[in-house]
C-alpha cells in the first residue's frame, strides 16, 4: 500500500465525494426537493460520510480514526434507510435506488475493511511475523 499523506489520497474519501454528488443530484429533482425534511436529512447523512472520514484522518491516531470510520458506517446505514423512504414515496426510481444503495453498501464494506486494516496494523507482531518481515527486507 502506498503512503497516504492527504485525505484526497484515500479511495474511501473519493468514493464519499461521489456519493455526495449523486445524493445532491437526486435531491435536486422537483418532487424530492419539495420534501424539505427528507432532502435535508439525506444530504446531511451524505455530508457526514465524507466529513467524518476527513475528520478522523486528521486526528492524531488510528484509534480515533477507527472511531470516526465507525460513525461513517452509521451514517451510511442512515442514508440507506432514507433511500428506502425515497423509493417508497416514489421520489426515486428502483433503478436509482439500486445504484445508490449498492454504492453505499460497497462503500460501507470498504470502510469496514479499512477499519480492520487499521486494527491489525496496531497489533503487536508475533515472532513468526517478525521473522517473515525481516526476510522480506533482505
Structure, explained:
This protein has 138 residues and is an all-alpha fold. It has a single domain, classed as 23S rRNA-intervening sequence (de novo design (two linked rop proteins), Up-down Bundle), CATH 1.20.1440. It is built from six helices and no strands. It has helices spanning 11-27, 30-33, 36-58, 62-88, 94-121, 127-137. Helix 1 (11-27) runs antiparallel to helix 5 and helix 4 runs antiparallel to helix 5 (94-121). The longest helix is centred in the C-terminal third of the chain and has 28 residues, at 94-121. It is elongated. The model is unreliable at 125-138 (pLDDT under 50).
CATH superfamily: 23S rRNA-intervening sequence
CATH topology: de novo design (two linked rop proteins)
Task: Summarize the amount of helix as a percent range.
Answer: over 70%
H/E order of the elements? HHHHHH
- Provide the residue-averaged pLDDT: 89
Named at the architecture level, the CATH assignment is: Up-down Bundle
> What ranges have pLDDT less than 50 throughout 5 or more consecutive residues?
125-138
From the spread of the alpha carbons, the general shape counts as elongated
The first-level CATH class is given as Mainly Alpha
Instruction: Quickly give the structural class.
Output: mainly alpha
Supply the number of helical segments: 6
How far apart are the termini? Answer: 19 Å
Number of separate domains: 1
Number of strands: 0
Radius of gyration: 18 Å
Q: Indicate the proportion of strand residues.
A: under 5%
Major sheet characteristics: none
Amino acid at each position: 500500500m502506498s503512503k497516504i499523506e492527504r485525505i484526497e489520497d484515500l479511495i474511501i474519501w473519493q468514493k464519499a465525494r461521489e456519493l455526495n454528488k449523486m445524493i445532491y443530484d437526486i435531491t435536486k429533482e422537483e418532487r424530492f426537493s419539495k420534501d424539505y425534511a427528507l432532502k435535508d436529512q439525506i444530504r446531511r447523512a451524505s455530508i457526514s460520510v465524507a466529513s467524518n472520514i476527513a475528520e478522523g484522518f486528521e486526528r492524531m491516531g488510528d484509534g480515533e480514526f477507527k472511531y470516526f470510520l465507525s460513525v461513517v458506517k452509521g451514517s451510511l446505514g442512515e442514508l440507506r434507510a432514507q433511500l428506502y423512504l425515497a423509493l417508497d414515496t416514489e421520489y426515486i426510481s428502483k433503478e436509482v435506488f439500486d445504484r445508490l444503495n449498492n454504492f453505499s453498501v460497497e462503500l460501507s464494506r470498504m470502510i469496514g475493511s479499512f477499519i480492520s486494516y487499521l486494527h491489525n496494523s496496531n497489533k503487536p507482531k508475533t515472532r513468526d511475523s517478525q521473522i517473515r518481515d525481516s526476510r522480506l527486507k533482505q
